[in-house]
Amino acid sequence: MTIRISALLPAITAFLVISCSFPKEDTSIANLFAPGNVNTNMSERDAALSPDESIFLFSVQLTNQHSAICYSTKLTGKWIRPRVASFSGKYMDIEPVFHPDGRLFFASNRPLPGETEAGDYNLWYVSKTDTGWSEAMALDTVVNSAGNEFYPSFTYNGDIYFTATLEGGKGKEDIWMSKWENQQFAPPTNLGDSINTANYEYNSFISPDGSFLLFTTHGWGEGMGSGDIYVSFKDENAIWHSPKNLGAKVNTTAFEYCPSLSPDGKTLFFTRKNSPTPETERWSYFEMVSSFNSLENGQGNIYYINSDIIQQLK
To answer: Which of 61, 113, 121, 229 could cross-link 67 (Cys pair, CB 3.0–4.6 Å)?
Structure first.
């Protein structure tokens, strides 16, 4: 029997219409990023999407003694299984972020030049090469101190925002910034009472234009859980306004931290430790094993959501 192609066209057309009409992921709510590849039952955090959006970097933290910066690239439109970046895997490396000039900055406890043993956390950077990444270089001692420096982020003009516990701070960990002036960083300044409290403020991400700051805090009210992400807006007089909680679309009773933005500013990435709960009052062994092997097992996962929720709070 001969079947004419023309006879099949209605069915083929219907199939294509159905196949192409599946709804895209709803980015007005928080979604797991690349589940099964980027997000696993390990602890993932610190999202950094390259300026051309071809490389997704993040931290994988197994224990308090081991953390590596990993990366994923796309194959046929999907993020594939990650690898450890060439400059990482030996020391505690966390919190990658791209500088406006394309360099990749991160925090690490690797030995500083002239030292042989791992020590406190300092800020380092690498440059992209034809074959991978350059050797890591440490920032100078204007920013790197005898204590810990964490979570760098940058404005378009090169000003750096980071977390540290420095003399003259407001409390425990505070958010600091150093201006980029005359091809060097100026001494750090504390962001003051509008941002920092006697409690913990950390994991800050400055918008590239410097108009708002995302960060995790334990000092601006009870919040919604063990740690929430807030936003503070800066007015035309360079005054930071009191932080606002990002709300229930981002913050939950779980721990939310490590905010960052995509290069186009349209996507907010963040980390959540979404701990599982038993179906009854007591855990069964099966539930314990299933929870441990699940993606959202409380170790930490990277989520994303449309960043419109930020401007809605302005």
So the answer is: 61
